[in-house]
User: Fold this.
Amino acid sequence: MRELVLLGDEAVALGALHAGLSAAYGYPGTPSTEIMEYLIAERERRERQGGEKIAAAWCANEKTAYEAALGASFAGRRAIVTMKHVGLNVAADPFVNSALVAIKGGLVLAVADDPGMHSSQDEQDSRFYADFAMVPCLEPRGQQEAYAMTLEAFELSERLGVPVVIRLVTRLAHARAAVSVGTEARAQNPVAKSADKPGWTLLPAYARKRYDMLWAKQKDMLSWSESSSHNVSTPGAKDRVVITAGLGGNYYEENLRDCIAASGGGAAPARLHIGAYPAPEKAIRELCSGAKSVLVIEEGQPFLEKRLRGILPQAIAIEGKLDGKLPLAGELNPDNVRAALGLPARPTAAAASIPLPNRPPQLCQGCPHGDSYQAIKDAIAGLDSVSITADIGCYALGALPPFSVPDALVCMGASLSMAGGAADAGIKYPIGVIGDSTFLHSGITPLIDAVSGRKPITAIILDNSIVAMTGCQETILPSGRLREICVGVGVEPEHVVTIEAARMKAAENVAAIRRELEYRGPSVIIARRECLEAIRIRKKREKAESGQEGGRA
Ligand code: SF4
Assistant:
């Protein structure tokens, strides 16, 4: 063994490599991005220095990433797919259906939730998805567990023949700790010699059998979780018992000494920590037997808490998020867990209050999106019946002052579909604002809808030639292809207009937007200018390649 300091995300990536990973796919999304960054760097290192090859690549979206991983598993290899929680909505179709196929090469989904919405539009909890798909889920509470659970997830996936979910959260994914890791990777699985067609062909006649088999596996999954070393019971006082899960276990332990002191030096509450799902029902019943109440401390939505209501007798009070002992929204922390335990607040040192101006997040000074938003603002001045639906990316910040341009922002790709719906509803000038990467992720299909329905939408693709918001990954296709795609799906070539998103071009850009707004069919404006961060990275790389500077960009 050796010790490395790793992010939670990196611990998952290294665990996958040591488990004999052959293929990794993902779509960037905070806080999951660093898993793939690590694996792509490892793929590049092996290409340069030799070693067993792996595939590791960003994909157009989470659905295609999941399906690529599924294909590698179908071929008998071990594969991981990574995404953030809302990305799993996009990948939900293959994910849920993949629970029915005959997994042979271990398939692991590493999904990172974002309680507190540090960089997301909602707080959804991926444990519900694992439960819905009826597959096991592992929830690490530290970087060491993230590494070990990933190794285990591949074994479990092959043993039970189902995909296995690793659920991370922001504070674990993005924090570093020392991790003891193995020194050697397991050899990769060989490529399967033949296909198990009935096991992989979800035609109704086969799928019905596979669905029965998935139900039959639930008993094995439960018996695995009941005996899992990640579900740990600790004896103690039985009056009010505690169930912790994931990071909730750490916050509880930070308060444990005070809990014992508050009981007059007696025993801490009896406790069950859960890191492996399905929820271990027998262990929960044993813990709660004779208890008057149980406090559930879990990061995310009240997943276990709701589940307990079907497991425990009514006489046992269930406390947690649903009764307000813990906050329903936002993250847990040692202080709100402390309050739920009935402990007095800790003394805090308050800094002298300094009046600070409010500083909302903003586009970088000189960002091309700023010039595009100004042009849109000027183009719609004086027009009635305008809607501006935007999408996910840096340009979402244009919804805030000083631009305040988009009227709505919901999810990846929705800008263009919502513009189409708004057009149908009678809005005269529906504008959809979408980034180049988001367009390739999920903007093409709504553009096809607009073409098919001859909807008078104006799609404005803000093409900054990079996936800026998640750390400047390359877009899946070069910018030059955007026009071909738009024309290829049927937008009239004269209504696919490229402009330069620059202040000095303001007058002609405003005129171009106005012209396309008046066109009564679907039109596209590609507002192109490189992201400032992309320029910095490109210049650094060019310098390194020309030998003026060492290291990688
Ligand atoms: S990182 Fe790039 S795209 Fe994002 S705000 Fe800054 S300049 Fe604009």
Summary: The chain is about 40% helix and 20% strand. Confidence is low (pLDDT under 50) at residues 549-553. The chain has three domains: 2-226, 232-340, 368-535.
